[in-house]
Specification:
The structure holds 2 protein chains of 2 kinds. In chain A, helix 23 runs parallel beside helix 29 and helix 28 packs across helix 29. By secondary structure, chain A is an alpha/beta fold. Chain A has 33 helices and 10 strands. Helix content of chain A is 61%, strand content 7%. A 6-stranded mixed sheet of chain A has the order 2-3-1-4-5-7, sandwiched between helices. In chain A, strands 6-8 form a two-stranded antiparallel ribbon. The longest helix of chain B has 20 residues. Chain B is an all-alpha fold. The N and C termini of chain B lie far apart (42 Å). Chain B has 1 helix and no strands. The C terminus of chain B is likely disordered. Classes of the chains: A alpha/beta, B mainly alpha.
Chain lengths: 704, 40
């Protein structure tokens, strides 16, 4: 991708300025585009073709309000801009600004400009200017900022070519004048001495090194010692930082006075009116609850037909393979192991796609940010940061990126609490487990003639997960003392009609990630499970003989004897032995040894639960008429009680178990990585496991 | 023959899971941050 002619370009901007949208436009990559604050937490790169066969390698840096970092992801920006010796150090920087919040956006611009790197200012959402009554004198702004300024609308593909041209012009001109000369206005002698420390670095780079305690590789040992001397007088450094901020805003105000006019009388936006309703202290929550009901109703109502279709197709496929292939172990592996296991993942595509569709629409429209704002008030009461809402909400997709999203939280204790409680929020991997259990044990009835009881149960489980996360955070807050609370800056983006392209990309990418990510693991586990269920020690091999020779079975029909043999074989198989070993531990929760096997295998990933049961019941079943997963589970009878295995009590107990248990190896690995110790993931595993066990036991006792 | 194919498939499944959860391959770029935990 990197050619000798290629330019290295970094995209920098405040959160929600459309930086990622511009990145998509420039690179054509399918990146996530949304209004969700803090969406970009990782470094993303892509190639962009400029004119004359020139290529630019674009890096999308995390959204930040300044280059004085307060969180892990913001510090990435500072490190990228200071490390001039780095191979990815940018030749040109594109600062993306939001036309409505230009003043605040120019603060970051002024800092970057003072680093004396060629810079382009792309003012995004320019298509909204007329509606907002905004006028910009671009030519004067260019002169004042001594910078290439381009008006763009990344969502509407306006001004993208101009950005490309500006990047090239800027690289060629190599115009690197600083904007705010901090030395003159603050303390001339102090900054003169600072500049003399290293002739190879700009004054502002050196100033950032001492204020942010961030020393790049390009600084020599001697220079670092000299720089550290400047940090001795902490109060002086802080005072000068304050002066710097004031000075920057004064200069920005002066420039905007001449170039940026907002005439509210000409504005005709409905944003303010909508915000009043959506963030209202009563109506805001009522609407949010209504939206949640709509989502969970739709997950069940819309998905029934495609799910039944997929389920039937897999049953047909099994039947087809059974008829086409010769009898043998390979046929058994395919029909009893692979097809039911994979079918257990594919069947949930409609429900997962619907969930992601709604989440993408909420992000795209700008409503998600209003939810974050609403929930911030609740979060603070329970010792979390307002920014904790982001991981908690993203946790509904997957806890792994959600735990990583805690990097935006500046206070370590708040971040740790958020990391520890995030896995309680209902992730998409729980959805298949919930969906199958709810459809088995909760009647398909309508509440008040309209609301589906099954949908309501699903909503309650999501609410339970969220409530448990909040309560746990409150308890952890009391145990782990938070020394410092961070401030919450969440931008309220404009309301927008969702872009079909962005929503479609989002749904397809996330669903694909689920199917291929989980699917490969489930397929592998299904194969191993099938082997363990189809093989065993001597007692397994003698199962058929012992059933036939048993006097008590003499009067049974041939079909009944076959069922007995299949059942005994499974019990005596390797997997049966494993299940039987753990049965005493899980029996108080209402589970038999077959469910026990599913609990063990789903420790890798929760969604494996359904595939495991599908494989076990397929191996056990000798029925020539291949039935669907749901039918097999519904027909399963507990050999000891003679009652249905998936009774209301067992189903509810399992739902509660999966709501609380830390059944995800991936999340544990990420928690270890983010906390740099095994202490916290182990505490999470044990704590959540104990809670799940106790809560499931209570649930089973109540419903029995 | 079927038996041999089954054993090959089984070995591939065990290898895949072991690679995924036990012997994780290290990524070259530690700043990737994909969340897979392989960068440690």
């Amino acid at each position: 991708m990197d050619t000798p002619k290629s330019l290295k370009v970094a995209l920098i901007g405040n959160p929600n300025t459309g930086k990622t949208s511009l990145f998509n436009q420039l690179t054509g990559l399918t990146q996530k585009v949304g209004n969700y604050p803090g969406v970009t937490v990782d470094k993303k790169q892509g190639a962009c073709k400029l004119s004359n066969n020139r290529t630019a390698i674009i890096t999308d840096l995390p959204g930040t309000y300044s280059i004085n970092p307060t969180s892990v992801d913001e510090s990435i920006v500072l490190t990228s801009l200071l490390n001039t010796a780095d191979k990815d150090f940018p030749d040109v920087i594109v600062v993306v600004a939001d036309v409505e919040n230009l003043k605040r956006n120019l603060f970051l611009f002024s800092q970057v400009k003072d680093l004396e790197i060629p810079i382009v200012l792309a003012i995004n959402m320019s298509d909204q200017m007329k509606k907002k009554g905004i006028t910009i004198d671009v030519d004067t702004l260019k002169k004042e900022l001594q910078t290439e300024v381009v008006l763009i609308s990344a969502r509407k593909s306006i001004g993208i070519d101009e950005v490309k041209n500006a990047i090239e012009n800027c690289a060629e001109a190599a115009n690197t004048h600083p904007l705010c000369s901090i030395n003159h206005k603050i303390d001339g002698d102090y900054f003169k001495n600072l500049k003399e420390v290293s002739p190879n670095h700009t004054l502002y780079e050196l100033w950032l090194m001492i204020t942010q305690n961030n020393f790049p590789d390009s600084i020599t040992k001697e220079e670092k010692i000299k720089l550290l001397e400047f940090t001795q007088d902490v109060s002086k450094v802080r005072r000068y930082q304050h002066k710097e901020t004031i000075h920057r805003y004064q200069q920005i105000n002066e420039i905007l006075k001449r170039t940026y006019i907002v005439d509210r009388s000409k504005a005709n936006d409905t944003r303010a009116k909508l915000d009043k309703v959506f963030t209202h202290r009563i109506f805001g929550y009522v609407i949010f609850f209504g939206v949640l009901i709509l989502i969970f109703q739709s997950i069940f109502d819309w998905s029934t037909i495609p799910m039944d279709y997929i389920d039937a197709q897999f049953a047909n496929l099994s039947e087809f393979v059974t008829k086409q292939m010769n009898t043998g172990v390979l046929r058994d592996l395919i029909t009893d192991g692979i097809i039911p296991g994979v079918g257990g993942v594919i069947i949930f595509i409609p429900q997962i796609a619907i969930l992601f569709l709604f989440v993408a629409i909420l992000e795209e429209t700008g409503y998600m940010s209003r939810i974050v704002f609403l929930m911030d008030k609740i979060m603070r009461r329970y010792g979390m940061s307002g920014k904790s809402v982001i991981p908690l909400i993203s946790g509904t997709a997957c806890a792994i990126p959600a735990v990583m999203a805690t990097r935006t939280i500046s206070g370590w204790k708040e971040r740790l609490i958020t990391i520890l409680v995030t896995p309680f929020t209902t992730c998409s991997a729980r959805l298949p487990v919930y969906a199958i259990l709810i459809s088995l044990v909760i009647p398909d009835k309508k509440l008040f003639g309209y609301f589906s009881l099954q949908g309501f149960t699903l909503l309650s489980l999501y609410a339970l997960g969220f409530a448990t996360a909040i309560i746990s955070a409150f308890l952890l807050h009391k145990i782990v003392k938070v020394k410092r609370t961070s401030f919450f800056v969440a931008e309220m983006p404009n309301y927008k009609i969702p872009s079909i392209k962005n929503v479609a990309f989002d749904v397809v990418e996330k669903t694909k990630a689920f199917v291929f990510g989980a699917g490969k693991i489930i397929l592998a586990i299904s194969i191993i499970l099938w082997f363990l269920a189809s093989n065993g020690p001597e007692s397994y091999k003698n199962a058929e003989k012992s059933v036939i020779e048993n006097v008590a079975n003499k009067n049974l029909s041939a079909e009944e004897i076959q069922d007995k043999i299949a059942s005994l074989k499974l019990e005596k198989s390797y997997i049966g032995i494993m299940g039987k070993t753990i049965e005493p531990v899980i029996k108080p929760l209402g589970y038999d040894w077959k469910i026990g096997i599913a609990l063990i295998s789903s420790f890798a990933a929760r969604e494996v639960f359904v595939g495991t049961l599908a494989t076990i019941y397929s191996v056990e079943s000798d029925d020539e008429n291949v039935s669907t997963i749901k039918e097999r589970m519904r027909a399963e009878v507990n050999s000891e009680t003679g009652e249905k295995t998936f009774s209301l009590a067992v189903g509810m107990s399992l739902l509660i178990f999966y709501a609380f248990a830390m059944q995800c190896m991936g999340t544990l690995a990420v928690v270890k990585r983010e906390t740099k110790t095994w202490k916290w993931p182990i505490a999470q595993l044990v704590g959540m496991g104990a809670l799940a066990y106790i809560a499931s036991f209570i649930t089973f006792t109540i419903f029995s | 023959m079927q038996q041999i194919i089954v054993y090959i498939i089984l070995a591939a499944a065990i290898y895949f899971l072991a690679k995924k959860f036990i012997f994780k391959s290290k990524k070259k770029d530690s700043s990737c941050g994909s969340g897979c935990g392989k960068c440690e």
